Amino acid sequence: xxxxxxxxxxxxxxxxxxxxxxxxxxxxxxxxxxxxxxxxxxxxxxxxxxxxxxxxxxxxxxxxxxxxxxxxxxxxxxxxxxxxxxxxxxxxxxxxxxxxxxxxxxxxxxxxxxxxxxxxxxxxxxxxxxxxxxxxxxxxxxxxxxxxxxxxxxxxxxxxxxxxxxxxxxxxxxxxxxxxxxxxxxxxxxxxxxxxxxxxxxxxxxxxxxxxxxxxxxxxxxxxxxxxxxxxxxxxxxxxxxxxxxxxxxxxxxxxxxxxxxxxxxxxxxxxxxxxxxxxxxxxxxxxxxxxxxxxxxxxxxxxxxxxxxxxxxxxxxxxxxxxxxxxxxxxxxxxxxxxxxxxxxxxxxxxxxxxxxxxxxxxxxxxxxxxxxxxxxxxxxxxxxxxxxxxxxxxxxxxxxxxxxxxxxxxxxxxxxxxxxxxxxxxxxxxxxxxxxxxxxxxxxxxxxxxxxxxxxxxxxxxxxxxxxxxxxxxxxxxxxxxxxxxxxxxxxxxxxxxxxxxxxxxxxxxxxxxxxxxxxxxxxxxxxxxxxxxxxxxxxxxxxxxxxxxxxxxxxxxxxxxxxxxxxxxxxxxxxxxxxxxxxxxxxxxxxxxxxxxxxxxxxxxxxxxxxxxxxxxxxxxxxxxxxxxxxxxxxxxxxxxxxxxxxxxxxxxxxxxxxxxxxxxxxxxxxxxxxxxxxxxxxxxxxxxxxxxxxxxxxxxxxxxxxxxxxxxxxxxxxxxxxxxxxxxxxxxxxxxxxxxxxxxxxxxxxxxxxxxxxxxxxxxxxxxxxxxxxxxxxxxxxxxxxxxxxxxxxxxxxxxxxxxxxxxxxxxxxxxxxxxxxxxxxxxxxxxxxxxxxxxxxxxxxxxxxxxxxxxxxxxxxxxxx
Length: 870
Hints:
By secondary structure, the chain is an alpha/beta fold. The chain is 43% helix and 12% strand. The strands form 6 sheets. It has an 8-stranded parallel beta sheet. It has a 5-stranded antiparallel beta sheet with strand order 17-19-20-24-22. Strands 4-11-10 form a 3-stranded antiparallel beta sheet, with no helix packed on it. Helix 13 (366-380) packs across helix 18 (476-499).
């Protein structure tokens, strides 16, 4: 990779905000460069770029990396990236880069490292980069790589001519090909093929013999869960785990990122799926050390602060990011959850849960669904990894002379019970110390596992001794390997069982089912939110604050609108019951009521603010149907990804298209449109409130591409649709226009203007936001429970933020702001400011008591800066 000096100096030296851009062939670096002026004008300090290394052809996200050696040519390659970085730097923008250390894309014919592994097997110079069990107990896989990429069982594929022998020019030999997948032939077989000629292998017996001699075992794709002898990303066989604990693999995976950082073209990194790594703590510290060393040797860097490192880490309720990792925080799912919970009315929790249970005939308790899903996914989706862990534990038990007491079935049940009850992604013990503490979540899982009917206490006790290191007889390397396998199984299991299964099964209120959310809890008190933000200001003032991501289940404004339903549970129950009645004539026999209820919530959350044209109505129907089918498959109740139930999916499609066809379902469409119209303003106020909190709370706010306008998107690929940036450029308004824009809030310009005003304020007073203290403010009066108020202070400057927390109570069915008299005597006690207060919009207070009836005439939120004394 060519080296270059750092780009032009930038106008600021702080990471204050980010804007996520999803690069792909249809949106390359050149398209990003054209946004430089717009993003800088919006108030963004850094572009947060999706992964840029070479990925599978046509990749829409970049997480399927096939080569560490070059920047993706589909995006513009190195030259295009450097040109974009210069364009950004000219406008004062930096870059934060998303990296993918945990896995690479395999299968196909594009990953040279993978193909080398297949060709040479254990002798490959990259064999220890991949997490392959060459000592598999399966005799068909001993010394081999399981290759479950065939579209049919092996014998059937062979007989049907789906496996053929071809030349492999890239490696100077031959390969088997099955569709898009290439499988290089062993070096020792190349000469035989060359001598016989490819045509000779039209003889199936000869071809079969060649295939069986290879360093891999060709197999049907459906065999992966049962037989796979290498670690993959979740249940995705096309993504193989990479061992970042291997120094050579670490260096190769990060070489380009380190060069870009040394050249001053990027200012930090976002680490994807850090919990998938063998030792996240060691990895993060190594990353920090390397970046710090590069910074010390690059004195001309435009950005002079420490590299910003954030990790994609799902925090369980009560879990904190481990200290000592050397990172700045998480990617912000935790904040997303907290601000969402703040906007829900906890008084409705039991009523909503009871209604869901009545409609779906499923448990009203999220914990029940989660526990069942964990067991189910662990038993059906990760059998290969699970059995590998059981093997390692049994070897240790044999060393400790415990093998006679713990048969294989008992050890398997103990593993399933323990990991099935673990409420965090993983532990962080490594096996490198004689005595380690797995933590309270492990202890809770152990207690729960002991209470299960078929619990094997001896096996559970033994696993505990392995995790804690209390048995000196255990081989150190064997113990460390077993612990690594335990953690690298519990982590993907949590993701698949909770976010990708339970969230699609449990339908109490879908606004609480999103990535990183505590879906079992509907609400959060203002005091709890204050406590969390105060802790954030102290421990992680530079952690990311997200509201929308490329992984979200639904956009921030869809969640904000659905949160309104928690304030009107009785009305919501009545209207949804009405829809069940209205749609009886178009409901096909066999459609499950729980799935229908899910769909109604999806429609309410995503319903457009503008009237749909005929074309728009068809596009909306297509989006909702694709979203619903994905939801049904993820739930794995009546269809799934492995074996789609086409008949059930046809029922769902017929129903969805009938519902969204005005010629068939006009009464329903009028009803749902009217209902959404009644709650839309409250949803918008919720959306603006969470935006204001995001930009004023301790941390670094991220704006997902396009989300400066209203974002009612669904799960990917819906949230990765093209963004109309020209409309956003044309809509930019100043803070002075905010009160006027409130009248036309549906077009999204108001949200954009508020965001820009807040981001620009962050640029004017960076230390206030990066280092300022967090102060909860007292609210008085009979509407005090409808608001949350906070202050940030640094030196002689301060900021105050006041927003509603349950917008329907504030608005009823009215406009964007309530009548002034509705607030009555409600007031916020402002901190002292000798120079008074200058609001970003709205009315300035006459004293240190902010009376809401005077402060919020157009928009029910208020942000002000203390005026400096002149």
